[in-house]
Design a protein that fits this description.
Elements lengths: L1 H4 L9 H22 L9 H30 L6 H26 L6 H38 L12 E3 L8 E3 L4 E7 L2 E8 L2 E8 L2 H7 L6 E5 L2 E4 L3 E5 L6 E4 L5 E3 L5 H8 L1
Antiparallel strand pairs: 1-2, 3-4, 3-7, 4-5, 6-7, 8-9, 9-10
Length: 274
């Protein structure tokens, strides 16, 4: 059981997936309460019940949105585990329960009761188990399919030029180099830095221009990959990927250099390097 809780679990969710999961979770809460009328809701007439249960769904969506889009990018880091995911889910359910208690207290004012807060939290956990379990199954299934797809990918045959001239779009630049010796390129304001290697020595050459233009000049050399708006790497020097979608990096084989990965490139990086 302990080994299961320590098992790495870090599903990558896009903003679109987070939005639809949050909307589906809140919708489930609304429909479940409205249709089955548990916890004494059957005593309320249908018209009032519709708006009251809709309110529960909206409160749930609001709390989940804060967690998914604000807290999770700050909290969920590298080495996230299944056990931590369970604790995070319990904290989310607790906050949803407290928020729903405050909501019902506004509708039906009564004296503060710690017992009812605990009941609200327990209710949120019980009702939320079903959509949370479905979400977990879908997440694991997605990770499994991704792993199978990656395992079946045949590496593309690389093409190289013997020499390339990098001008970064500026005709005053003329940096001739064998592209196989280029480790990565990065941009800083109006300059592009080309990092090359000879033996174990890294050399930086600064050119005035744009990274987009440099990328176009290297297009015939298929090993180069744009992993970030400010970085292009030579995938021949990539060692492994670290972090998750919020702080993903590519560690290079040369001197332990780490190159950041933008969120929009995270899925592509995982397919290419993991």
């Amino acid at each position: 059981m302990i080994n299961l809780l320590r098992k790495p679990y870090n599903p990558i969710e896009s903003k679109k997936e987070k939005f639809f999961f949050t909307l589906a979770f809140g919708s489930f809460i609304f429909l479940f309460l409205f249709l089955f009328k548990p916890f004494g809701l059957a005593q309320i007439n249908n018209q009032s019940l519709f708006f009251i249960t809709l309110g529960f769904g909206l409160v749930t969506i609001s709390v989940m949105s804060v967690f998914k889009f604000i807290f999770e990018p700050l909290v969920i880091k590298d080495k996230w585990t299944f056990g931590k995911s369970i604790l995070w889910g319990m904290l989310l359910a607790t906050c949803i329960g407290i928020a729903n208690y405050l909501y019902i207290s506004i509708l039906f004012p009564h004296l503060f009761s710690f017992k009812y807060i605990l009941l609200a939290i327990w209710t949120a956990i019980l009702v939320g188990i079903i959509p949370a379990s479905i979400g977990y199954i879908l997440s694991v299934n997605k990770l499994y399919k991704t792993a199978l797809r990656e395992a079946s990918i045949v590496p593309d045959e690389l093409s190289w030029e013997t020499e390339v001239v990098i001008r970064a779009g500026n005709p005053k630049n003329e940096f001739k180099i064998n592209p196989k010796s280029v480790v990565y390129l990065c941009s800083n304001d109006n300059y592009v830095t080309v990092v090359t290697i000879k033996g174990e020595i890294l050399t930086k050459t600064h050119l005035r221009g744009t990274l987009k233009a440099a990328e176009s000049e290297l297009r015939k050399n298929t090993s180069f990959f744009r992993c970030h708006k400010c970085f292009i790497i030579n995938s021949e020097y990539a060692d492994h990927v670290t972090g998750n979608i919020q702080n993903m990096k590519i560690r290079l084989k040369t001197q332990g250099v780490e190159i950041p990965v933008s969120r929009s490139k995270a899925a592509e990086v995982l397919r290419k390097f993991k």
